[in-house]
Specification:
heterodimer, A: alpha/beta, six-stranded mixed sheet, four-stranded antiparallel sheet, 37% helix, globular, B: 39% strand
Chain lengths: 250, 431
């Protein structure tokens, strides 16, 4: 589904990704781990199309299309979802209004009719019930005054509504207490699907206790330096990132 | 050169051509007083950013035609826009065309809008003495007609009262004067709509005076939706007695140059003033809002929030003065001014001015100037929204608050629609 080859990307002239390779197939859950500054978030942002990053080399293919040729919104409509580490507060923009506009932008792109207010509400209520979210979320400003846990849950709600083919969740566990973490993890697990791939970007192993990955990759210096199954995450937890770094430079 | 080039001799000669009427004495007196003051210039602190040169130029040209036509003022044709607004906003409408009130519109309305609410032509014999500032004097000097709305004690209306200032360049200069008297515990809701019937150069100068007796409430929405070449100077003076409240929403959407002065005087305990404004500017538009809230006594409250969205090379000014007089203890005043700049060339000059002469007061103020948040735009785009739609969504949200606390809700749908069109223009211009 996603083929990243020799990807190099920089921001204001500084190279962050330096020849990254990653292959993700439908139905898989990948965890991307690594120390601070290793390029985890950059990878997520570059795939989503953050305009501040410049791709200097390599290729990203998504469902057979050249992703780097597409605008941010086109990537989203094609089925890429980025769950933000810091979801953005947009005062005055109603959550329901954004969700409906987003769902319809995607439907339009795929040649489907737009859903009306009634269908939308029905769908939103269904997804919210699944995530254990209060209905009042719909009428609040996007992330406006939300707690850390509410913001992350709202990201998962957006993901559930948009039904992406590939979801990249950037540090979805950061800033969450154990109850919020479980709730978010349950939400993500309920969205696991043979047709859908999920990439979890995380610093800690903790999240992986709740969302079990098929593959774990360790990022260091802008490249994947080690890949394995879920046992790699446990080994990392035990031996620290320094171990991988040393192994990589050896 | 600080002079605006306004020609006082032309004014004197034109006014002499006016037919004698109840305003004659007031007009001559105003002409004489204005002679020593002249139009304000950018050398005056209060007019630092706003140059009335174009207003003077339009005035000089128009005064010449008035002299040539021996005081006759051009008639105005009817307009579809006027009919549309009257239909879209459910109100008792009074149409003032080029400063002249339709003779039948008042008689029809009298008594119909609600018992205790009456409408009449202004009679300067009732000593509606103008303030002595230059533009108020200019207003009286050329005044042909005026409107008085009177609400007796406890009176109220079923629908808002709409006053539509429909001006067209057929008369390049017009003066409007409206006096609102709200008796004890009366409640008046007023929509003042400033409209250009045709495009073209025009200068309008309006004065609104509201006097609120004890416990009276006046809700006043002012919508300025003028044509591109329009120059407008508007002054609103409000006097509040005990427990009175004045709620004002202003929307400045069009015009080449607009200057608003809103002056409120709290003279009775428990009185409350709410001023909310939204200004949208693009191209080379210039919109200047000067507000002044005078707390003469306390406890009393004032709340003010003005928001601006600026595109193109527009320039806007917000000057918010709050004066708390000696002894006005218990004053609670809040003021804010927020601006969204959609272009690097747009300019906002914002200035709070607090003068506090009492001890036991709460006064807060704040101003912000920002651009569209790139992170928010990216966030919306990752949800599949196009760049234009994302810009529109954030910009609309910035303006939305001013609609949600509208003092006269009957205007809401019309305003939402007009704002939407206007915002689309602004975003189009900012690409």
């Amino acid at each position: 589904m996603l083929e990243v080859k020799n990807l190099k990307a920089s921001i204001v002239g500084k190279e962050i990704l330096s020849g990254l390779n990653l292959s993700v197939a439908a139905g898989e859950v990948h965890a991307i781990m690594g120390p601070n500054g290793s390029g985890k978030s950059t990878l997520a942002q570059v795939i989503a199309g953050q305009p501040d990053y410049e791709v200097t080399d390599g290729s990203v293919e998504f469902l057979g299309k050249d992703l780097l040729e597409l605008e941010t919104e086109e990537r989203a409509r094609e089925g890429i979802f980025l769950g933000f580490q810091y979801p953005v507060e947009i005062p005055g923009v109603n959550n329901a209004y954004l969700l409906k506009a987003a769902v319809n932008a995607k439907r339009k792109h795929h040649g489907l009719t737009e859903i009306d207010a009634f269908e939308f509400l029905k769908l939103a209520r269904e997804k919210m019930a699944m995530l254990g979210m209060d209905q009042s979320f719909l009428n609040r400003g996007v992330n406006e005054g939300f707690s850390g846990g509410e913001k992350k849950r709202n990201e998962i709600l957006q993901m559930a509504m948009l039904e992406p083919r590939l979801a990249i969740l950037d540090e979805t566990d950061s800033g969450l207490d154990i109850d919020a973490l479980k709730a978010v993890a349950n939400g993500v697990n309920s969205l696991r699907d043979p047709e859908r791939a999920i990439v979890l970007v995380t610093h800690y192993q903790r999240l992986l206790d709740y969302i079990e990955p098929d593959h774990v990759h360790v990022l260091s210096g802008g490249r994947i330096v080690r890949s394995g199954d879920k046992s790699l995450a446990l080994e990392l937890e035990e031996r620290g990132y320094e171990w991988v770094r040393e192994a990589a430079s050896a | 050169m600080k002079a605006t080039g306004f020609n006082q001799d032309l004014l004197r000669a034109a006014v002499e051509e006016f037919p004698a009427d109840e305003f004659s004495a007031a007009r001559s007196s105003a002409v004489a007083k204005l002679a020593s003051v002249g139009f304000p210039t950018v050398g005056d602190e209060d007019w630092k950013y706003t140059n009335l040169g174009l207003a003077a130029e339009i005035s000089n040209g128009w005064l010449k035609t008035i002299i040539a036509d021996h005081g006759a003022i051009a008639e105005q044709s009817s307009s579809e826009q006027v009919a549309m607004i009257c239909q879209e906003i459910d109100a008792h409408w009074i149409i003032i065309q080029n400063g002249i009130i339709g003779s039948d519109s008042l008689a029809e309305l009298d008594g119909q809008a609600g018992s205790g609410v009456s409408f009449s032509k202004l009679d300067f014999a009732d000593k509606d003495d103008a303030d002595d500032d230059a533009m108020s004097l200019f207003n009286v000097a050329l005044l042909r007609d005026g409107l008085r709305i009177t609400a007796r004690a406890n009176a109220t209306t079923d629908k808002p009262i709409g006053v539509l200032l429909a001006d067209s360049p057929s008369s390049a200069v017009t003066q409007t004067r409206i006096v609102i008297d709200a008796g004890d515990n009366a409640h008046l809701r007023v929509v003042e709509y400033n409209l250009s019937v045709d495009p073209g150069r025009q200068f309008t100068n309006s004065v609104v005076q509201a006097n609120l007796a004890s416990g009276a409430t006046v809700d006043h929405v002012r919508i300025q939706n003028r044509a591109d070449d329009h120059v407008g100077v508007n002054k609103i003076t409000v006097n509040l007695d005990r427990d009175a409240s004045y709620n004002h929403n202003s929307f400045d959407l069009g015009g080449a140059l607009t200057r608003n002065d809103v002056i409120t005087k709290i003279a009775g305990k428990g009185a409350a003033v709410k001023l909310n404004g939204l200004y949208l500017a693009t191209g080379t538009q210039h919109i200047d809002n000067h507000t002044s809230i005078l707390h003469l006594v306390g406890p009393s409250t004032s709340e003010e929030e003005y928001r601006g969205i600026l595109a193109g090379s527009s320039q806007c000014v917000f000057n918010g003065k709050v004066i708390v007089s000696p002894g006005a203890d218990g004053t609670d005043s809040r003021q804010s001014n927020h601006n969204l700049l959609l272009s690097d060339r747009a300019e906002i000059d914002t200035k709070p001015e607090l003068e506090i002469y009492a001890d036991d007061v709460k006064c807060a103020h704040g101003a912000t100037v920002g651009q569209l948040d790139e992170t928010a735009l990216f966030y919306l785009r990752t949800r599949g929204l196009g760049l234009d739609e994302a810009r529109k969504m954030i910009t609309r949200a910035f303006a939305a608050g001013t609609l949600s606390n509208l003092a006269v809700t009957e205007c809401q749908d019309h305003l939402a629609e007009v704002l939407d069109q206007r915002l689309a223009n602004l975003i189009g211009d900012s690409q």
